[in-house]
Structures are given as structure tokens and as C-alpha cells.
Specification:
The protein folds into two domains: 112 residues, Multidrug-efflux Transporter Regulator, Chain: A, Domain 2 (Orthogonal Bundle), CATH 1.10.1660.10; 83 residues, Orthogonal Bundle (Multidrug-efflux Transporter Regulator, Chain: A, Domain 2). The protein contains ten helices and four strands. A two-stranded antiparallel sheet has the order 1-2. Strands 3-4 form a two-stranded antiparallel ribbon. A hairpin with a 5-residue loop joins strand 1 and strand 2.
Amino acid sequence: MTGNLQDSRRLRPVDLARGHGLSAQAVRNYEAAGILPRAERSPHGYRRYTALHAQALRAFLALVAGHGHQTATSIMQAINRDATEDAYRIIDESHVQLLDDRRTLQAVEAALRDLAPVPPERGDTFVGPLSRRLGIRPATLRKWERAGLVQPRRDPRTGYRVYSAADVRDALLVHQLRRGGYLLEQIAPLIAQVRCAGGVAPLESMLGDWRARLSARSRAMLTGAATLDAYLRCR
């Protein structure tokens, strides 16, 4: 490594930890994990950190806010082993994931808009008509039922599944989310919230919170990119 930061004063683990709400042991753990570059040792075995390590720590913590701990760790590990292209790829993949999350949110919002209204008095239907309406196989509806995503009642005389207006709403929502790439286990909590709320209208605040979190991640990614760029310029 080269750069003016190499020539700055020596820092102890506690010096790096101070101001970040970290312990000195956490700093040592970050070095051991490859998040920080290797530190020189004194003749007595004490770590000698520099301003370069401080910049690496700032970059990592900024990346965590936008990319998450695991991805931020992988980015810093790649950079510190001089595999910069690998780090860029990991960053690109994280941005793709954020874009996918935004598209999923849009799919959820579109799905909820498409649900209203379903007249209660005309909501009852059966497997065949509902599967044709959705363009799926009846077996798919039964799979959703086993996953708890739709809960049709049984006709006491025939044993046939009878889908109420609420069941049709749930099936339409599941169908839209599946088209948006959601897995069944990801859909289940949302369906549960729709049922508990008695409809889709009370979910607007949840969607607003979701949108705000995505915006915060986008902003944090920008901050992380700037801090990481500063670290790269120092190496």
C-alpha cells in the first residue's frame, strides 16, 4: 500500500473504536475478518493502526448502512486482498437487489390497487372458475391453500371448496405477488396482515414505511460509495 495515510501517527484499537460506539475487541475482530487491512505489530506484539485503518473502518460502517453487514464485509474483504473487481461486482449485485426490492414494492402496490372492490354478495366461487380467472391450474390454488395463503371453506353437502370474496381477494393478491417474483413464504406475512386488517386499505402505512426504508437504503448506498471511494484513493 502507498499513500500519505501510511505515514500518519500510530493508533490503538481503542482509538479506532472511539466515536463509532465500538469496542476495541470489535476493531481487532474486523481486522481478523479482513474488513480492515492487516496492521503492523510492535516488538511487543501490539497492533499499530494508522489513519488508513480508520478510513477503512469508516468505509465499512458506511457500507453496512446501505448494503448490510454481510455484503459490506465481502466488499471490504475483496478490496483488502486487492480483488477490486470482485468488490465492484458485489456492489453491483447489491444495487440490483435494491432495484428488485423496488419492483416488488411496485408489484405489491399494483396488486393491492387491482383488488378493490369485490362485492361480498357476489364473491363466492369454486376452484374451476377462479383458476380460469387467474390463468393458473387448480393444483396451484390447492398448493396455495396448503401454504395457508387462501382459506376456502368446504360445502357441507358436496365437500367442494367455496371461495368467498375475501378468498378471491387473497388469491388475486397471491397471484400478483407471485408474478412479481415473491416466494410463498414471503407472501404469507402480507396475506396475514391483509386478513387482520380486514382488507387492503390499512396496509397503506406499511407500504409507506417500506418505501421509506428503500429510499434510506438508496441514500446510504450513496454515502457508502463516497466513503469507500475515499478509502480506495488512500491505498
